[in-house]
From TrEMBL:
The gene is troR. It comes from Haloferax mediterranei (strain ATCC 33500 / DSM 1411 / JCM 8866 / NBRC 14739 / NCIMB 2177 / R-4). One of its GO terms (molecular function) is DNA binding. InterPro entries: DtxR_MntR_Metal-Reg (IPR050536), HTH_DTXR (IPR022687), Iron_dep_repressor (IPR022689), WH-like_DNA-bd_sf (IPR036388), WH_DNA-bd_sf (IPR036390). This is Iron-dependent repressor. Residues 119-140 are annotated as: Disordered.
Length: 140
């Protein structure tokens, strides 16, 4: 896991667990990457305007970065649910992290429609991630 989407997702998740700025070591550990690799990636993401990077303080998603990563996170959650609930993969979160940046919103929406449903027609929550949204017009 070394692409920009993975770093953005890891930062997004870390910012929901603790107050920013997030130390680079936290993200590096989440992705099993070196601090040097994380520094390089976050400098590039800062150049793109997606994060605010302060050496020795950490990194924070910018407003633009939050908007971009929120959609990416929805895809990650949907893919995670699909990998766990349908494919029954053991390491579904890692696999979903790898693919989230490659899956289009259209494909994510269709995957969400294949997820197991409860009697009210919503995805059955099986773990700590929020349920992916499914269009009310569509049945699961």
């Amino acid at each position: 896991m070394s692409g920009a989407p993975q770093y953005l997702l890891a930062l997004y998740i870390a910012q929901h667990r603790r107050d920013p700025p997030i130390p680079l070591g936290v993200v590096a550990e989440m992705l099993d990457r070196s601090p040097a690799a994380s520094t390089e990636m976050f400098q590039r993401l800062a150049d793109d305007g997606l994060v605010s990077y302060e050496p020795y303080d950490g990194v924070t998603l910018t407003e633009s970065g939050r908007k971009h990563t929120a959609q990416l996170h929805e895809t990650y959650v949907t893919v995670s649910w699909f990998f766990r609930g349908v494919l029954e993969l053991d390491d579904y979160e890692t696999e979903a992290m790898e693919l989230a940046g490659l899956v289009s919103p259209t494909v994510a929406k269709r995957l969400a429609a294949t997820l197991p449903c409860d009697t009210e027609g919503t995805a059955t929550p099986e773990f700590d991630e929020p349920a992916p949204t499914v269009n009310e017009d569509e049945s699961c």
